[in-house]
Amino acid sequence: MSPNETVVRRSKTFFRSREGDTSQKPLLVLEDVYKYFRRDIPTLRSVNLEVQRGEFVFVTGPSGAGKSTLLQLVYRQHTIDGGRLLFSGRDISRLTERSIPFLRRNLGIVFQDFKIVPHWTIFENVSVALEILGTPAKLVRARVSETLDRVGLAGRGNERVSHLSGGEQQRVAIARAIVTEPALLLADEPTGNLDPALAIDILTLFEEINESGTTVIFATHDHSLLTTSPHRLIVIDDGRLIEASQGLRVWSARTQMSA
User: Fold this and answer.
1) Domain boundaries in the chain?
2) pLDDT tens for residues 99-143?
3) Which end of the chain is more exposed for a tag (fewer CB within 10 A), N or C?
4) 61: CB partners within 8 A, 6+ apart
């Protein structure tokens, strides 16, 4: 087995090696999690959350409430300062720096500002995630083609992303995030730079990805999206997590975002 093949295999099994023990358990668990950027004021405080495999979860709240920080802890941009954070049964707060890339190969991440390379083609932006894993070129071409079809960009791989609209650029970013078939897709305000009609289109795309089996956590402060789809809603206010029941979903979002 080549070194590249070893990397691919390890990246796929690193967080699934105990799948027989964890398949019926939550994919993501936060237990009494704290995060401080200032010593005396926690950005997140005593956060407890379970996300089941295959769920679609909205995370909302006012700007600065801690939505992005929550996602950043999951993909280990930052480390927690208290509690435990489990992904697929592993305590990722205890991962070594060497192990973090293997965590991220099991996650897809989509940002508000796309974070794609403007002078690259669509194909180049999407394929880079597979190339880093050492995926054979033939499989890269097939996987990218399939993924572009899923996000509505079939046959457009040779176009420069700098020539695309904002909505199309976000579709490229989504394609890059899902081309590795991650177990969990994190979206940090992915419609923040889009007009309302495009925002609904992008939300619908995330829902289609979720229906295929991918767990989705979608952070947004856009109230119109929250009222569009009846997904589970988590509200973060002043660093605290509030689980909104189905009957109080809209009320909670309005209350927290106007606070």
Assistant:
1) 1-106+214-259
2) 898 898 899 999 988 899 999 999 999 999 999 889 999 999 999
3) N
4) 67, 221, 235, 236, 237, 256, 257
